[in-house]
Amino acid sequence: MKRMRYLPCWPLAILSVLFSSPSIASGSTSHGLNLTHSFIGYTAVCIFVFAYILVTLEEYLKLRKSKPVLLAAGLIWAMIGYVYQQQGATEIAREALEYNLLEYAELLLFLLVAMTYISAMEERRLFDALQAWMVSKGFNYRTLFWITGLLAFFISPIADNLTTALLMCAVVMKVGGKHNHFINIACINIVIAANAGGAFSPFGDITTLMVWQAGHVNFTEFLSLFIPAISNYMVPALIMSFFVPKETPDTVNEHVELKRGARRIVLLFILTIVTAVSFHALFHFPPVMGMMMGLAYLQFFGYFLRKTLAGSLAKKTALAIANNDEAALKRIGSVVPFDVFSRVSHAEWDTLLFFYGVVMCVGGLSLLGYLTLISEIIYTQWDPMWANVTVGILSSIIDNIPVMFAVLSMEPYMSLGNWLLVTLTAGVGGSLLSIGSAAGVALMGAAHGKYTFFGHLKWAPAIILGYVVSIVLHLMINHASFNIFF
């Protein structure tokens, strides 16, 4: 299977540029002309760095993160096109561009189907029902701390870490009220749990999905990261739990009735996952083929719900009248048919377009020769294990998506154990800082002023301890996989 491209270590690229001569090299890299020491190369790096700075300032500038990287991608490839045309190598640049577009298309369609299913479950009120159940049980703060954390850990491998974190945060905000200390520590707990839970499943995080689609780790092999991942969550959670009060918040009772077909959509999503895994395992096709087939399951089910809506309403109406249930009659009046395409429109398009921009930016920098240069430093001069640990630390500063895509673009020759290690570190490393993952950034917005950067930083020693323990456990439990090379 083809491998992917992305970039994390741009600081090293900048250093290499600063200490090199500004002239176009006549040689070529495995991707084309070596332009790392040229004006075009310098400019491309500066454009990408500036665009990424704007991405990190998204919350302050109120500028969607997709905008700067989309512009940067266009500018970088325009410069590449000009230089390659001057060198008579237009075909090489075009093939590289098409390669990156194909890689992005596979991930786009895969994520689009997953997001559509999650949106459908949300529309059918599954998440609302889960939230109402937790709020109404009258748990104390410490119990809620553990319940929201454990649910975040076990739901994120299926529903993705960002969606899971936002769902659990809504529960914490509702029961926490003005108890800012509880909200802050509970949100930290949720971020750590969601990121750790996403590390051992291709459906839990985009980084694990990229490694799976690149063919470096099989679907079942990710499960070997379960114990390291749960230890990454449990160690800091156990420490923080002693600082959570045992007070009981006021109980809020709320009845949430699932819309028709809610549970069946969950079953269809599970069937879609099985289909995607089967396409990859049996036919060695990209998993996206199975995901797109799974979208058809949802479309046909939506058609079934629309066609049988009238009959279903008639039965419910008759039952409500017979039982003299006025509340049921009111709920029946608000029922609407299910529309798959409206769910597609609710996908996180800003995230998907941001992903396109980063893929194309890093693909362009790869063609210029920078990823080859960085790979020679960290994966040739360093031990791969320390390189992968460093990648995890970098992902706490730079979003883990470009970090992982850069590693895949470098195509380092590593054992299965090291591919699992970089998957783990890139996934959980984002928990070291609140800005290190999409879940952390999203919760800073959802719990604005209550969950903060410095509030998260206060617990950094406990989180780092969990990070170290998870790596050590992986080295101990999966030591045999470090002898398996591809």
Automatic annotation (TrEMBL):
The keyword RNA-binding does not apply. GO terms for biological process: sodium ion transport. Its main location: membrane. PANTHER family: SODIUM/PROTON ANTIPORTER 1-RELATED, SODIUM_PROTON ANTIPORTER 1-RELATED. It is found in: Membrane. Residues 52-427 form the Citrate transporter-like domain. This is Sodium:proton antiporter. The lineage of its organism: Bacteria, Pseudomonadati, Pseudomonadota, Gammaproteobacteria, Vibrionales. It is a multi-pass membrane protein. Belongs to the NhaD Na(+)/H(+) (TC 2.A.62) antiporter family. The chain crosses the membrane at residues 37-57, 104-120, 141-159, 222-244, 265-283, 289-306, 352-373, 385-408, 420-447, 459-477. Keywords: Antiport, Ion transport, Membrane, Signal, Sodium, Sodium transport, Transmembrane, Transmembrane helix, Transport. Pfam families: CitMHS. Residues 1-25 form the signal peptide. One of its GO terms (molecular function) is antiporter activity. InterPro entries: Cit_transptr-like_dom, NhaD-like. GO terms for cellular component: membrane.
